[in-house]
Specification:
There is one protein chain. The protein is mainly alpha-helical. The protein is built from 17 helices and no strands. It starts with 10 loop residues before the first helix and ends with a helix. Keywords: Membrane, Transmembrane, Transmembrane helix. The chain crosses the membrane at residues 46-67, 87-110, 117-136, 142-163, 175-195, 207-225, 246-272, 284-304, 311-332, 338-363, 375-396, 416-438.
Length: 444
């Protein structure tokens, strides 16, 4: 395995040096000795910040990724069952959260005095959007509330996790992000079960109202800890809004692989339950496939985050790429029984579900080439790339399913009517390794 190269810069000492050298740029709290700042990589406040990140991650992405439960309900009930825009709701909720990330991060940098309150603003927008969505009488109302409103609020509430993580965790940053990503895996097990029971018993109106209250009650106690470690600046640090890294070859190659990976990453979560039913599984066992995927992604994310702190980004991406590619082509592709499909769910969750945990390593490598680049801006643009793949994958997969010419003419999964979906997912896993080839051919 290739070990990580030492960084040419360390954002923590630089930030604390700014407090010492330019105290006039910070508020009155900066007059305290820098040694009185909370410790990094540990200590009560650092772990509570991480706990807040995990909770917010779990509530935002756990709910958004469970939209398949709502989609099934909306297609089966008036007044939405005849609409062809139901899938747009879920696409907006996740896509907008990813795509608006650079804008929200930039806004937090430009408004440093308000950054502390972004989590609160986002939480209110999310919960209000869900509550308003419960009064929807047509699909457009749901798109604007459960889709657009929730997506914007989620991004605003979540962005402090990205902006302040570098302040709280330095040597364990990859592990911290891995633990954060694991939050959505845990909630990805709970939300689908809870939502299905609520929808079947009370309908979408009561369900959205209940969820809006639950999200607020669970998130509110952690908002206090979702804060910066360093004193708030009085002036805007425009140097952080440096986008020259976008033109570097190393970033472009990594981002290309990230977008390609995202094109297929979300497809198993969408189609596994339907595929399981096609091979004779009950509704409960069908949903179990996604539960296993989410559960495995928890362990995959934490493990990969730990590895990202110690090994080169290419080593981490290679593990994810090879594991997920083999799982798709050989386990899902030849899965004709439920046990085999469950093994695939676990393998895919372990290897593909941990891909986001490599972003800390990617950020490290980009900053090694361009030390002036801000880590949080790099991270937010990587998230934007994942959003592109997320938005495109929905309509792309629908088009693929409608023209699958392998149905009945190929073996096992390849001839099930989902053969091209399996192929598309596998190719996205394989081609996401473009950065591996570029690295070993010395292109980056």
């Amino acid at each position: 395995m290739e070990m990580r190269r030492p960084s040419c810069s360390n954002s923590l000492p630089r930030s604390e040096a700014q407090i010492r050298l330019c105290p006039e740029k910070f508020d009155e709290s900066s007059s305290n000795d820098v040694q009185r700042l909370p410790p990094v990589d540990g200590g009560f406040q650092a772990w509570m910040f991480l706990a807040a990140c995990v909770m917010i991650e779990a509530l935002i992405w756990g709910f958004a990724f469970a939209f398949g439960v709502f989609q099934k309900y909306y297609h089966a009930h008036e007044p939405f069952q005849d609409s062809n825009m139901v899938a747009v709701i879920g696409t907006c909720a996740t896509g907008i959260s990813y795509l608006s990330c650079p804008l929200v991060i930039a806004a937090m940098i430009l408004l440093p005095q308000w950054g502390r309150w972004f989590s609160s603003f986002g939480l209110v927008i999310m919960c209000l959007s869900l509550a308003l969505g419960s009064f929807s009488s047509n699909i457009t109302h749901l798109v604007l509330s459960q889709g657009v409103g929730f997506g914007i609020g989620g991004c605003i509430a979540y962005s402090p996790s990205i902006l302040y993580m570098d302040e709280w965790f330095v040597h364990r940053r990859g592990l911290a992000f891995g633990i954060t990503w694991a939050g959505s895996g845990v909630s990805g097990i709970i939300f689908p079960i809870g939502l299905e029971k609520l929808l079947n018993r009370f309908g979408f109106e009561t369900t959205l109202r209940v969820i809006s209250v639950v999200v607020f009650v669970l998130a509110a106690p952690f908002i206090y800890f979702h804060k910066p470690r360093l004193p708030v600046r009085k002036t805007v640090d425009y140097q952080r809004l440096n986008f020259r890294f976008l033109m570097t070859r190393i970033f472009c190659v990594y981002q290309l692989g990230n977008i390609i990976e995202a094109l297929g990453f979300f497809l198993p979560g969408i189609y596994l339950p339907t595929y399981a039913r096609s091979i004779g599984a009950t509704d409960f066992l069908s949903s179990l496939t996604v539960t296993l995927l989410n559960l495995a992604s928890v362990f995959g994310s934490v493990t990969m985050g730990h590895l990202a702190d110690r090994y080169h980004a290419i080593t981490c991406i290679t593990i994810s790429t090879v594991g997920s590619t083999l799982a798709v082509f050989f386990l899902w592709g030849f899965a004709s029984t439920l046990p085999t499909l469950c093994v695939f769910s676990i393998a895919y969750g372990l290897f593909a579900g941990c891909y986001s945990a490599t972003w800390a390593g990617i950020t490290h490598e980009v900053r090694r080439v361009d030390p002036s680049a801000d880590a949080t801006m790099i991270f937010s643009v990587i998230a934007f790339g994942r959003g592109i793949g997320n938005v495109v994958s929905g309509p792309l997969s629908e088009a693929i399913v409608s023209v699958d010419s392998w149905k009945g003419s190929a073996v096992a999964g390849y001839g099930s009517g989902y053969g091209l979906i399996i192929l598309c997912t596998g190719l996205s896993c394989l081609l996401s390794g473009v950065c591996i080839v570029a690295h070993h051919t010395k292109c980056i």
